Amino acid sequence: MARFAAIDVAGVEPEHGAPAAERLIAGDPRFTTWNVEEAEGGLYAGIWEATPGKWRIVYDEWEFCHILSGVSVIAEEGGEARTVKAGDSFVLRPGFRGTWEVVETTRKEYVIKV
């Protein structure tokens, strides 16, 4: 097995989804996920894209995100709202609760550690 894994979606079958109905706040957001890496121990990496809408998020895992395109607003409960756009990178830590609002279709690279 090679130890170098490019985040390349060519040949990766995308998964399609949406926020759970009880988490939806506004719009009709749709997700497309290209999971490029899935390793034993709960590590995932790939590309995720969402269309406009707003929903509640709850994180039990670590997630590193790098925004490739679009604009989103991520607001933590009891904290400030942050606008993220192409070129921005950030980490959402376990215990993060708040909302994710896609203003313009957003695509990100992600690495998740459960």
UniProtKB/TrEMBL annotation:
Residue ranges of the TM segments: none
Extract the InterPro entries matched here.
RmlC-like_jellyroll, RmlC_Cupin_sf, UGlyAH_Cupin_dom
Q: By its UniProt entry, which Gene3D superfamilies does this protein fall under? A: Jelly Rolls (2.60.120.10)
Domain called (S)-ureidoglycine aminohydrolase cupin: residue spans: 38-110
| Top-rank taxon, per record | Bacteria
Q: Which Pfam families match?
A: Cupin_3 (PF05899)
Q: Which CDD domains match?
A: cupin_TM1112-like
Q: What is this protein called?
A: Cupin domain-containing protein
Q: Which organism is it from?
A: Aquibium carbonis
